[in-house]
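The freezer alarm interrupted the setup, so I double-checked each line after restarting. Inputs confirmed:
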Amino acid sequence: MKNSRSPVAVWRGRDLLDGRVVESITVILRTRGCRWNRCLMCGYAQEGVDASAEDLIVQLRSILERAEGAELVKIYTSGSFLDTFEVPEAARLEILRSLRDMNVRRLVIESRPEYIDHLGLEQILSFLDVEIGIGLESSSDLVREHLINKGFTFSDFVRASDLIHSLGGRVKTYLLLKPPGLSEMDAIVDAIRSARDAEPHSDIISLNLCNVQRNTPLERMWQRGSYRPPWLWSAVEVLRESSLRVPLICDPVGAGAKRGPHNCGTCDGYVADAIRSFSLSQSRADLNLDCSCRSIWMKVLELEDLSFGTPLV
Amino acid sequence: MRFFEVLRRDGPARLGRLMLDRNITTPCILSREDYVCAGSVFRYRNPEEAREATISLAKSLKDARRLIVLPYPSDAAKDIDLDIDAPRAVVTDISSVQKDAQKDADVYVLRAAGTIAGARDLVDTLICIRESIPPDSALYAPALATPSNLSLLVYLGVDIVDSVRVEMDGHYNRYHTRDGVFRRDELSELPCMCEHCSSGDMPAHNILKLEEELVWVRECVRSGTLREYVERQVRCIPWMTAALRLADRQERYLERRTPTYRKSVMYANTSESLHRVEVRRFVSRVLTRYRPPESDVLLLLPCSARKPYSESRSHRLFRSVMGSMRRFVHELILTSPLAIVPRELEDVYPAAHYDTPVTGVWDLEERAWLMGSLRSYLERHRYSNIVAHLEGELCDTLRDGGIDAVYTGGGTGQEELERLREALEFACKDARPIGNFRLQEFRAKADYYFGSGAGDVLTDGARVKGNRLFDSSGRALASISSGRLALTLEGARMLLPLGSYTVRIGDFIPKGTVLAPGVVEADEQIRPGDEVIVVGDGFLGAGRARMSGWEMAASRRGVAVELREGAEV
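Predicted 3D structure, all chains:
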């Protein structure tokens, strides 16, 4: 039962904060959901309810106890925290106040660029150190428009990022590995290129491995056999080859599942763990991995170049 | 300049030539050396970059001639095109094919063909694409072909495949044979003796099997036996059988592409055989084009294994029993799957070319098809007496169906033939004679091939000598050989006013062949193998169509008509 008084999810974890591994907590508030809600792979908006400012405050208070000791707090909404339609100003202020009163070093929120404006930024940055996650997904406008339907451009992202930086905030850029419609190789190339393009505008880059969410256009493609989630090897490749000056992290959500990023079924857990270690260590040594399916993956890279849009599964 | 040409047709299947550095006979397995491709447009920052990459690829080829695949998909690639005189391929799919068809490529690549799943998807997709792209372009279905489905793909109109699917499957431990794909570990013995099987190189084995199958499929197209092969091959997997049945429901697609003549034997071995274009077309022409001679007596006879029927032992016996009564009797042979074959048409295709398992058992579908056809025939043509010299279930079928006839019980024994003679003698009393059989044969075939009325135009006042037809002043009009009618110039001139089966050409004098670009207009009814009249401003000729009329009008390469007769007029 979707309850407007309890968050979608909350979990504790460990994250990189200015080169240190620290305790973190992640909360996904249940809001009305993303106002755009047209991205082909996204099913988050289905989690939405008509939550009022008061509801959101109740949701946050319900987790404050679990946030004890977390230096890093991530508050996500499956949409844009800075969209007042989703998170009314009253709720935003109350959340910021509560967190400031705790010993939180940094708050991470997410927003589409169109809700990132001068006034709002100044307001939140007056409370605490804030990192704003933006789902750029790809630096290619072609990919973002045709394969994701994201609805904003690379220059919209740059403008938002510049504004955040000019006011002293931090930018976390999300990239999507393997939007539908790319071959495995093209997906790797797109992600590496995007990481390099986004680097000057980002303080940290997070690689999201595309997974198949329910009731999305992507799910229908997957059911028809025209989409396969990325191989974990592809994620490893992107993490190894991007060589950035900013941290490149990746949480392989759903690794090993049919709908999630996966390899052969044998090595998924082991490779996913290595990816998580790398995200904390940023050491390429963590990614020296092998499995018999790696040569199959390499064959996939080669042959999908000749399959004109058919995933070779 | 175009770099693809269709040489032969067998239904939607074609034998063609793709003119690259090597001349490739299609259907073919395209290798990665045969083409260059800058890849999906998403590899680039914008369509312009993709265009430049393609141009530099094309330039890097220098004098080498390879297929250049334009960036795709077209909705994101906008209108990237190259103004180059080189073989071009456009990647397309159902949603964009109407637009892409205008790009006039030599090859159309079906995007994500390998994700086609199921019978309906396959049939609908391939037919939609094939019907949209120009007939003289090749259709490439990447990452789809396997040894077991290859013949079906080619039968439905695919010209080019590749080994991508089977090669990848080899790496996934999937073992391909003509009978389907198996997990390597389900097979206790490998049913193949190739060196790759001994060495355990499954991708190479799979590719080899695909190549072998392709050779066989090409041979079938050459010999006009692909349909027979496909009817067998689809039995491997139910969805392929379903695909063939669904394709048979797309009558227009198949009929417009199916030749009216083949040298090969037509096997009617399966329930799908009953739905073949050749079968439906034959009966439809007998019912709508053919007109029997004015006659009072109809004799219904069973078919014979030997074709044409009159060369069989049984039909020789029937003929000797009939003796001089033959000139009062019109003969109709009942058979499966062609249902009703008038004696005058017994040597046309496929009446003289089919073979079918004969058990004496008529299943419900065969009975319904036979009775439906026979009833339609009898509604159109009235006889005062019908003698049915039939036996067994065939006889029962007519009796149960209420066909009003004298049933002799059939058979070829002495007593049985005697019963036939008695029945005929009784029926022929006071009957009108039906005239010269040879002349009737010309009349029937002219109607069958050129449409109702052509027979009267051609045979009015004419005489037959040997296998040739002459007008009253002794000029040859037409001849019959292997059941086909061949017109002389005089015969062509007589039929010209009817306006059917005419190919109008531009202002030139063709020699030997008429090429598609020379065709100004062609009768839509024309099918490969048809006798056609070629007419230009100062030219008249006759010959055999090599492609369908609609295809002549839409093609810019290929032989449209092989001329046999022709003169400046």
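Quick read of the result. The radius of gyration of chain A is 19 Å.
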